[in-house]
Amino acid sequence: MPEQSNAIVLAHSGHPNRRASFPSAANSAMTHAMIRLPALPLTLTAAALAASMIASPLAAKDSLGVFDGWGAFHDASVPRCYAIAMARPSTLRRDYEPYASVGTWPKRQIRNQLHFRLSRQLSPTSSITLNVSGKRFKLTGGGGDAWAQDQRMDAAIVAAMRSAGSMTISARDTRGQVFSNTYGLTGVATAMDAATVGCAKLR
């Protein structure tokens, strides 16, 4: 499995209710608050990225499993559980190491919330499109991050991911260039289920 070496290297720093705390993305439609994710430089290898994130005080405490290109983690300090994966490798310019995550915060009654760290800084006027095996979603975001517009869209995207083979997020960067990040979805359903089960008793 070619993506296995990239799997699960991210000990996610968390993104509860993400829509309002990104300064570049704040607007009236963003009604929730979120912890800003770290910008991850491209120069980090997968192994170095894992080590740097695990060393963080916000890093995941427990692995719930590795499922092909996706992994599941539990962080009891928040508490939260999430599935996460890195984007497929690319030879094109990247400002950050891109990844996607689906998180659950049971005590905040937040479940299956999607977040993308993009590989480049977004143009302030850029649209953000997620294509999940032919199903297209218009996301929102700012800086180097993107997310669903609301909980209903989160649910629709997660449902589409379960039966899809891959997904691609595309946007325009601050130089006006279109870029995209692609994710394999083998193992994503199992990883999301593991994350849900991992936090099932914390309601």
Give a written overview of the molecule:
The protein is 16% helix and 32% strand. The protein has 3 helices and 10 strands, in the order αββββββββαββα. A hairpin with a 2-residue loop joins β7 (135-142) and β8 (145-147). It has helices at 46-54, 151-163, 188-198; strands at residues 62-67, 70-75, 80-86, 99-105, 110-117, 128-132, 135-142, 145-147, 166-172, 178-184. It has a 10-stranded antiparallel beta sheet with strand order 1-2-3-4-5-8-7-6-9-10, with helices on one face. It has one domain (4-198): Sandwich (Immunoglobulin-like). With 203 residues, the chain is of the alpha+beta class. Mean pLDDT is 77; it is low at 1-14 and 19-58.
Task: List its traits.
single chain, globular, alpha+beta, Immunoglobulin-like, 203 residues, 10-stranded antiparallel sheet
* CATH-defined fold name: Immunoglobulin-like
The major β-sheet equals: 10 strands, antiparallel
| CATH class call | Mainly Beta
Q: Identify the CATH homologous superfamily.
A: Invasion associated locus B (IalB) protein
Number of strands: 10
Backbone CA Rg: 15 Å
Number of domains: 1
Strand ordering within the main sheet: 1-2-3-4-5-8-7-6-9-10
Give me the CATH architecture, please: Sandwich
Count of helical regions: 3
Mean pLDDT: 77
Separation of the first and last Cα atoms: 36 Å
Structural class: alpha+beta
